[in-house]
Amino acid sequence: MNIKHLVYFRELAHTQHMSKAAENLGISQPTLSYSIDNLEKKLGVPLFEHEGRNIKLSRFGEIYLKFVTRGLNEIERGDSILEQLLNVNEGNIRVGFTYSLGQKMIPELISNFKKMDNTQGISFELFQGTTENLLRNLFKENYDFVLSSKLEELDHVPIKGKLNYLPIIQQEMMLAVPMHHPLSKFNNVNLKSIESYPLITYAKNHDFRPIVDSILSEGNIKPRIQYEIDDLQTLLGLVEYDQGIAIVPKQNHLDQSKIKLVHLKNNTINRQVYMVLKDNRFLTPSVSRFQNFLTRYCKENYKNQGELL
Questions:
Q1: Contact at 8 Å (CB) between 207 and 98?
Q2: Distance CA 207, CA 202 (A)
Q3: pLDDT for 226-246, tens place per residue?
Q4: Is the pLDDT of residue 305 over 60?
Q5: From its phi and psi, is residue 141 left (phi > 0), alpha (psi between -120 and 50) or beta?
């Protein structure tokens, strides 16, 4: 069915005047008359009743008008939303990110992006989770993109070639110790020096656990694991209250009057953060604009200076 015919029907139903409706629509009267006749033939019912030169909606036309109006309103609303989405200065951006990026990186990026011209019409939806959950939702297209670690498989299924991983920044892995701990007097320590102390580490399903395990393995260290924790802040709280030491990503916002962060001078393993995109996914101009800003901002503020987050 031709949508134009429905638009013509709606206008004629409102005016109930053939020449006036044709004028409002910017078409000729014969074209309008032909379209209405064609619509009535398709439906098999008269939509209008003629009384001399006047016309009015038939009983069938009154019923049909309610549905046509509702349908055309939804189509026009959809057109408006798509138009907004295709505007580089408007739209909604759905970003998923791991918990460790929520305290500094994401607020910093959005704050600086919003300082740019013509960004006030762009809104954000923010979602936090583990890398596994974020990538599951990315496959379901619940997010436009994700900032997370890299996985080779998801739910025991290889995902190579299905996602694009773009390296953004690295996070230095450091040793967190209580302020009065024997290692707190150093700015750099060897990996081997941590072996004799109780270690607080991440739960086995945590994003950082494989990284910490790799660091320990590289240093040929057999850790004395005291606790396995899901939440970074809880882990840091246990360190602060002298329940052990921990290997954590660099925390620029951390109050180092309570916890000392010490560099691991013979460690070569850092945490790589990626921008993860679903392969062949259409991205709106506003999403692409923010991604370009994100890449440029991280390059200018971290990579060019040889710094880690």
A1: yes
A2: 8
A3: 999 988 889 999 999 999 999
A4: no
A5: left
In which residue are the tokens 């009535």 written?
40
Sort 54 into a burial class: Cβ within 10 Å, 0-12 / 13-18 / 19+.
exposed
Tokens of 81: 């939303």
Which range is least confidently modeled, 78-87, 240-249, 299-308? Answer: 299-308
Q: Going by C-beta distance under 8 Å and a sequence separation of 6 or more, which residues neighbour residue 2?
A: 35, 38
User: Domain check: are 78 and 94 in the same one?
Assistant: no
Helix (H, G, I), strand (E, B) or coil at 170: strand
In terms of Cβ atoms closer than 10 Å to its own Cβ (0-12, 13-18, 19+), residue 205 is exposed
Say how many domains are in the chain.
3
Alpha-helical regions (H) of the chain: 3-15, 18-25, 29-43, 59-85, 105-113, 131-139, 209-218, 232-240, 285-301
Structure tokens at 263: 């560099």
Tokens representing residue 34 in the block:
């032909």
Residue 153: Cβ-neighbour burial (10 angstroms; 0-12, 13-18, 19+):
exposed
Reported as a single tens digit per residue, the pLDDT across 37-72 is: 999 999 999 999 987 767 899 999 999 999 999 998
Strands 271-278 and 259-264: unpaired
Q: Provide the H-helix boundaries in 86-149.
A: 105-113, 131-139
**Residues 198, 248 within the same domain:** yes
In angstroms, rounded to a whole number, what is the distance separating the alpha carbons of residues 81 and 137?
Answer: 23
Domain that holds residue 230: 173-269
Backbone angles phi, psi at 56, to 5 degrees: -145, 160
Q: Which residue has the tokens 């809104």?
A: 123
Q: Which two tokens stand for residue 244?
A: 């052990």
Count CB atoms within 10 A of the CB of residue 256. Answer: 11
Return the number of other C-beta atoms located less than 10 Å from residue 168's C-beta: 21
Domain end point (choices 66, 85, 104) = 85
Distance between CA atoms of residues 223 and 309, nearest Å: 26
